[in-house]
Amino acid sequence: MVHHPSITKAARSQQGLDRAGQVFSLSIPPIGLPGTARVPNNAYGLVIFAHGSGSSRFSPRNMAVAEALNEQGIATFLFDLLTSEEEADRANVFDIPLLGERVVEAVLSLSREAFAQDLKLGLFGSSTGAAAALVAAAQLGDRIGAIVSRGGRPDLAGNVLTQVHTPTLLIVGGADDVVVELNRQAFARLRGPKALEIIPRASHLFPEPGALEAVVDHAARWFALYLKAEPA
């Protein structure tokens, strides 16, 4: 049986968002994980966010990144990778295969939606969500056009890293010493086009003035490079 995400009636009746384009409230099967898609006018790509440990679709940092990407013509989808009951078990928060499968389910469901038919797909992962995005990309192959990791733990993808051929950008704060080294190790194992950007003096959550803006700038350029359609 093929499952499809459901667009709520409220979302259908309130799609117009002036400059922002359209907003859809979606439920990702099979367990109905809630999420929100924002599709700006003339969008050229759709980026699915994989949140980190203890976070949700309401992560203020990822919401800020998503809004900035919307302004640059990139549709975004923020969703919960776990139910509230699942989050109560801390083991699930670090279950990378489970989180990766949730990202796969979101990608397959969104690809059936009318608004996503002509949009190339990208993944944006933070913390453990970066590993989940890489695991998903290894399974999905050329369905995914680009990946960006923000303060991620790509090393948690383990041996899957050598199966990832998707263009991948790792962004790390320069003051986040341990995570910088873990990203360097993971970077060496990736097989596709790749880049490692270290934001000077930024810590793990990029709270410093201008740090998150730098993340957005690097991410937007990476997605533009790999998600925009080739000229005819």
What is the structure about, briefly put?
The protein has 232 residues and is of the alpha/beta class.
Characterise the protein shown here:
This protein is 36% helix and 23% strand. The chain has helices at residues 9-13, 60-71, 84-87, 90-93, 96-110, 128-140, 177-189, 211-227; strands at 6-7, 22-28, 33-39, 45-50, 74-79, 120-126, 144-150, 168-173, 194-199. The protein has 8 helices and 9 strands. A 9-stranded mixed beta sheet has the order 1-2-3-5-4-6-7-8-9, sandwiched between helices. It starts with 5 loop residues before the first strand and ends in a 5-residue tail after the last helix. The longest helix is centred in the last third of the chain and has 17 residues, at 211-227. Residues 1-19 have low confidence and may be disordered. It has a single domain (6-227), classed as 3-Layer(aba) Sandwich (Rossmann fold). α2 crosses α8 (211-227) and α5 (96-110) crosses α6. It has 232 residues and is α/β, with parallel strands linked by helices.
Count of spatially separate domains: 1
What form results from the Cα inertia axes? globular
Strand arrangement, major sheet:
1-2-3-5-4-6-7-8-9
CATH level 1 class label: Alpha Beta
The count of β-strands is 9
Q: In the CATH classification, which architecture applies? A: 3-Layer(aba) Sandwich
What integer value in Å does the Rg equal?
A: 16 Å
Q: How helical, in percent, are the residues?
A: 25-40%
What would the average pLDDT be, to the nearest integer? 89
Element-by-element helix/strand order: EHEEEHEHHHEHEEHEH
Distance between the termini: 38 Å
CATH superfamily, please?
Alpha/Beta hydrolase fold, catalytic domain
What's the story with the biggest beta sheet? 9 strands, mixed
CATH topology assignment: Rossmann fold
Query: DSSP strand (E) fraction?
Result: 15-25%
Low-confidence stretches: 1-19
Count of helical segments?
8
**Alpha-beta content class:** alpha/beta
